[in-house]
Specification:
Blueprint: H1 5-54, H2 57-61, H3 72-87, E1 95-103, E2 111-116, E3 150-151, E4 156-158, E5 161-171, E6 177-186, H4 187-205
Antiparallel strand pairs: 1-2, 1-6, 3-5, 4-5, 5-6
Helix pairs in contact: 1-3, 1-4
Length: about 210
Amino acid sequence: MHLTFRNRLLWAFLGFAVMTSGLVFFLSTQRSKDAVLEQIQSTVMTIAVEAAAEVETSSHERIRSTDDAGGADYQTIQAKLRGVRDRSRRDDIYVAFIYTYRVSPQNPDMFSYVVDAEEPGEDHSPVGQEMTWEGQDTSGESPLRFDNAYAEETFMTDDYGTWLSAHAPLRNDSGEIVAMVGVDISATLVISKWDQITRGSLVALG
């Protein structure tokens, strides 16, 4: 079929309009997703800071082996972490795990769990268990760091699932970071909120 110049111009304009609408849809949706991620990261980091404030560092430092898990120091800290965890299981956020960790005594490039708020079972991490992740650097170095409070920029996958995590430091009387508190929420919570944004944008576009 032979198209006149006017028809070709019309089709070109329609194609441009579709491409522009698609680009606007993608950019606006991505901005909304970024805003949701930042909000969740901020919330999880706040929870990590709250949990760290509940831990008495001197008591935490006395926990060195699985034998200490039955002691008062461990039990007290675990109860406080569980309290923070349970208060953070709400409609807007759902914390799966809260735990503390320190530099592994066996491997200074790795970290190991100290206190885990999780109840006894297959998801509980005992004192001294090293933390590992899917796709971990072949050098054996941990992707975590001892630092001020921060939230992960990307999801991390370990033996228990895929998570968005945040961390807050535990400092001794000299101000030195001796351990960290970790807080995990399931990546599916973030993804489900992203999906809601995409569906809402499609409805608005249609």
